Amino acid sequence: MPRPTADVVDGPLLREYRAISARVADRRQQLDRLRSLVDELEEQTAREEHLLGEMAGALGLDDQLRLDHLHPTLRGTRLRDVARQVLEAHEEAHDGIHYRDWYELVRGAGHRVGGRDPLATFLAQVNRVPGVERVGSRTGRYRLTA
Questions:
Q1: CA nearest 99: which of 76, 116, 117, 124?
Q2: What was the pLDDT predicted at 50?
C-alpha cells in the first residue's frame, strides 16, 4: 500500500481529521459528565421518594401501600422480587427464557429498571433471584427451579 504524500498528510484532510477527532473527544467527555449528572439526579430522587414514603407513613397518609412499591423503577431486592413474579406468571418459566425476553416481560408489565444500562442491571440482579437458575453455560437462559 503506498504511503500518503506530504501534501495529503499536512493538508486539509489531516486538519479536518484532527478537528473531528477533537470534537468527538469533547463530546465523549460531555456525555460522561451528563451521565454522571443523570445518575446523581436519579439517586437524589430515589432518596427523596423514600423519604416521602417514610413521612407519609409517619403522618398516617400511607397506611398500607409504600411509595417504593408504586414506583415503576426497579432496583436491587425489589427488582429481583418483581422479576421472579413476572417469570412465575409466564408459561416458559420452567422451560427457560432468555434474559432479554424476560427483561421485556418486566418492562411490558409497566416497570422500568434503574441504572445507567438497565439491561445490564437486570442481568446482574436476575443472577441472584432465589429459585431461579441458569440453563446451561453462556446461553443467557434462565428458568424457575422446581
A1: 124
A2: 77
Report the Cα 17 to chain-centroid distance in Å.
34
Residue pair 122/99 in contact by the 8 Å Cβ criterion: yes
| 63/21 Cα distance (integer angstroms) | 57
Residue with cell 427483561: 103
Residue 48 is placed in which grid cell? Answer: 427523596
Q: What are the pLDDT digits (tens) for 40-86?
A: 888 888 888 878 877 877 777 765 544 444 556 888 888 899 999 99
Contact present, 122 and 79 (Cβ < 8 Å):
yes
Summarize pLDDT for 90-101 with one digit per residue, the tens.
877 778 899 999
State residue 75 phi and psi, 5-degree precision.
-150, 160
What's the angle, vertex CA 84, arms to CA 71 and CA 51, rounded to 5? Answer: 25
Q: What are phi and psi of 142, to 5 degrees?
A: -135, 155
Report whether 114 contacts 74 (CB < 8 A). yes
